[in-house]
Amino acid sequence: MNIFDILGPVMVGPSSSHTAGAVRIGRVALKLLKEKAVFADIMLYGSFADTGKGHGTDRALVAGILGMREDDVRIPRSLELAQETGLSFFFSKTDTLNDAHPNTALLTLQGEHGKKISVQASSIGGGRIMINKLDGISVNFSAEMPTLIVHNYDLPGHIAAVTGLLYQNGINIASMHLSRVSRGSYAVMVLETDQKLPASILSEIESFKGIIKVTYFDGEE
Questions:
Q1: In angstroms, rounded to a whole number, what is the distance separating the alpha carbons of residues 2 and 5?
Q2: What's the CA gap between 100 and 105, in Å, rounded?
Q3: What is the pTM of this model?
Q4: 8-state DSSP, 220
Q5: Given CA atoms 33, 135, 186, 218 in this order, what sign does their dihedral have?
Q6: Which has fewest Cβ within 10 Å: 40, 66, 130, 182?
Q7: β-pairing, 147-153 with 211-217?
Q8: Residue 218: how many CB atoms within 10 A of its CB?
Q9: 153 to each of 50, 88, 116, 130, 209, how far by Cα in Å?
Q10: The dihedral of CA 123, 31, 90, 119: what is its sign?
């Protein structure tokens, strides 16, 4: 535990979980979209759905999608600012996210150039978050470090090819999570690294045979 865990984040309140964490969820979803968002379908689950409005969770999520940080004084006006900047949004509640954390949101974003992404994330306290699913696939990363997500066919050699390339380029892997739908079908590897990855490495991984999609989150300053 460090001093940040004890004191919590510098933020516009009232709640580190319902407000600061929600801002981070929105901002990380925007970074994963990699272009300006013009539409956001936001589903709230658990405590986010039950008490989120009173804590400003709706405004916090939209603020994050607009690119704001937790201490931005404009957060209370984010819904109005979204309309001014061309971001349309729709909120709803759901009770169908089985086994999800109580503070969970499912964001489906569309970018100005047509790109779409679905991000399920939870606010786990002290302004910290966990990205649980990306486009419906379990990923479970904290968004605190550079993170590489590789979708591939479940065939021999993919893990060795990706990790070997990182080793050759002096990239240290901090954590690694592997999952698959079923044997021989669809697999995902999630690697958090100590260093940011250059575009050349991402392009090389995308060129590997059997790679379906590569998603990269470069961390937050």
A1: 5
A2: 9
A3: 0.85
A4: -
A5: positive
A6: 182
A7: antiparallel
A8: 13
A9: 40, 36, 22, 25, 9
A10: negative
φ, ψ of residue 11 to 5 degrees: the values are -155, 165
Structure tokens belonging to residue 218: 């470069």
Strands 37-46 and 88-94: parallel
Contact 25, 64 (CB under 8 A): yes
Distances (CA, A) of 107 to 40, 62, 163: 7, 10, 30
Instruction: For residue 15, give both structure tokens.
Output: 């709640």
HSE, CB side, 13 Å, CA atoms: give it for residue 134.
Answer: 27
Mean pLDDT of successive 10-residue stretches along the chain, which has 221 residues: 44 59 95 96 93 85 95 93 96 90 95 96 91 91 94 93 97 93 86 96 96 90 55
Supply the DSSP symbol for 145: S
* Secondary structure class of 189 (helix, strand, coil): strand
**Coil/strand/helix, residue 86:** coil
- In single-letter form, the type of residue at position 52 comes to G
